[in-house]
C-alpha cells in the first residue's frame, strides 16, 4: 500500500535524476528500492536521494524512519502546492565507516512565488546497518 498523495509508477524516471550510463534510472531501479521496501539504502548518497524522493512523494513515514532519533521531528510539514524541480548531488564524502556527508542542491517552486534553491551539506551516520540523516548546514 502506497502512502501519501502522489502515487508513483515504478517505471517512471526517478525524481532524484540519478543517471546510469547517461540514462535516467527508473524509480523502481533507483530510490523505489528503498522507499517501497524495508531494505536500507546502501550509502549516504542513496539515502539522501531517496529522502529527496520522499519529499517529492509526500512520504512522511519514510522521512521519519530515516531521520536520526536525536534530530527527528515529530512530523514532517509538507508545504501544499510545492513542485520539486530537481536534485543535483555535488559531492558524497565518506569520512569513516559510519559517517558521511552529502552536498546537494534541490530546487523547488512554491505554490506562490519564485523557485528557490536549497543548497545543503547533510550529515549521515550508519546506525544498526542503516544510514540515517542527522542534520545539515545550509550553504
Ligand atoms: Zn532515485
For the structure shown, list the relevant keywords.
globular, 36% strand, binds zinc ion, two-stranded antiparallel sheet, 139 residues, alpha+beta, 3 helices, single chain, four-stranded antiparallel sheet
Would you write up a description of this structure?
With 139 residues, this protein is α+β, with helices and mostly antiparallel strands. Helices cover 17% and strands 36% of the residues. The protein contains three helices and six strands; from the N terminus they run ββαααββββ. Strands 3-4-5-6 form a four-stranded antiparallel β-sheet, with helices on one face. It has a two-stranded antiparallel sheet with strand order 1-2. The model has no long low-confidence stretch (mean pLDDT 93). It binds zinc ion. Residues 14, 16, 18, 30-31, 49, 53 line the site of zinc ion.
Task: Spell out the blueprint of helices and strands.
Layout: E1 19-20, E2 23-24, H1 32-35, H2 44-56, H3 60-65, E3 83-96, E4 99-109, E5 116-127, E6 130-138
Antiparallel strand pairs: 1-2, 3-4, 4-5, 5-6
The structure holds zinc ion.
